[in-house]
Amino acid sequence: MGDKLYIVIPAYNEEKTIGKVLNSLKKAGYKNVVVVDDGSQDKTPVIVRKLNVPLLRHIINRGQGAALKTGIEYALLKEADIIVTFDADGQFLVKEIRKVVEPITNKDAEAVLGSRFLGEARNIPFSKKIVLSIGKIVVRILYGIKVTDSQIGFRAFSRKAAETIDIKSNRMEHAGEIMGEIVRNSLRYKEVPVTIIYTSYSKKRGQSWKDSLKLGIKMLLRRMMR
Amino acid sequence: MNVLQIIAIVFALFAISRVILRMRDKKLTPGEFFFWTLIWLGLLGVVFFPSLTSRLANLIGIGRGIDLIIYGSIAILFYLLFRIYVKIEEIEQEITKVVREISIIKKKK
Known about the structure:
The complex is a heterodimer.
Chain A: E1 5-11, H1 18-27, E2 33-37, H2 44-50, E3 55-57, H3 64-77, E4 82-85, H4 97-105, E5 111-115, H5 126-143, E6 155-158, H6 159-164, H7 174-184, E7 189-193, H8 200-205, H9 209-225
Parallel strand pairs in A: 1-2, 1-4, 2-3, 5-7
Antiparallel strand pairs in A: 4-6, 5-6
Helix pairs in contact in A: 5-9
Chain B: H1 3-24, H2 30-48, H3 51-60, H4 65-108
């Protein structure tokens, strides 16, 4: 397969984990990686440069949705055929990238969404489970798409999908918005089980239930305004 | 004429002067100019003829003039708040666009 694969990693203050993630990607042989530093105040950009990985820098923090879109746009400029989005906090397994990309190379789907519920998520905190299942229902109602995991950063897009999906939200609402875009553009999508490693570090970094509530309200408002 | 009326008149005149100045600077569209002039002239009208509001209120089916003003004001405030919300969203998205362009341009160098 001659498909050009690009891995987009949005990163905001991830100095503790970004180096490890980039190294394991390198080791696995992924050459086209781009990190979008979303205005980190820590050493994230320094580490990325040291490892000689292409780096795009937002001069101010614009949120994960914005960073993702920047990375996707860059990958499209670089003539990527497949774009994978990956988190910088080390929650995903590099070896599972192949699994997420497969439906696209096989032409089974234009968009692939990782799902921690289909997979063997390791020790998901109970509170997180509840919040996520509410999120699932909200996304179902607002965007009319049935997925088992709506708030995950592990995704793959074909070039066509990446070109048509328009992420307008800067902050975390982009997850739901991507679902909405998949429906709107009637892209074929597939969910693939992925493993998520919950460490004490990632738990601390993740969204609190308050953030999730805010997110829900914002998604609703945005939906009403469209 | 009581103190409140005088304050209201001064305030309305001040507001109208601002509206005219903004219009001269071309910061307001003709529609906005019309809207704001109407609002402040309306205030003047109410100050000089308070009974006007009661008659208008009765016409619509609201008991007192002051109630009409309060209902109307709240509706207008909500509408303006919504407009501002939408505007801020737009600005946020524009800022992101600028930040994104800068990051990509810098990378190309």
